[in-house]
Design brief:
It comes from Halobellus rubicundus. This is Hydrogenase maturation nickel metallochaperone HypA. It is a single chain. Helix content is 27%, strand content 13%. The protein is an alpha+beta fold. The protein has a domain of 43 residues: Single Sheet (Rubrerythrin, domain 2), CATH 2.20.28. The longest helix has 12 residues.
Length: 62
């Protein structure tokens, strides 16, 4: 088994990686950058996409 196959196997066992299940895709993302609109599963103090400081909890528009 080469390194790439080993890492892919470990990622699959951990349940993470580029291929998420349909269940994971349906869950809402709790944080959104107000500057660029990118959504994240975790809160960042600085947006990794645009460098903005406004990564806030997502609120559903009413």
């Amino acid at each position: 088994m080469d390194g790439t196959a080993a890492i892919d196997r470990l990622l699959a066992l951990a349940g993470v990686g580029p291929r998420e299940s349909a269940e994971a895709a349906d869950r809402p993302t709790p944080y959104v950058c107000k500057g660029c609109g990118t959504a994240f599963d975790v809160q960042y103090h600085v947006c990794p996409e645009c460098g903005g400081y406004s990564v806030e909890p997502y609120t559903h528009p009413e």
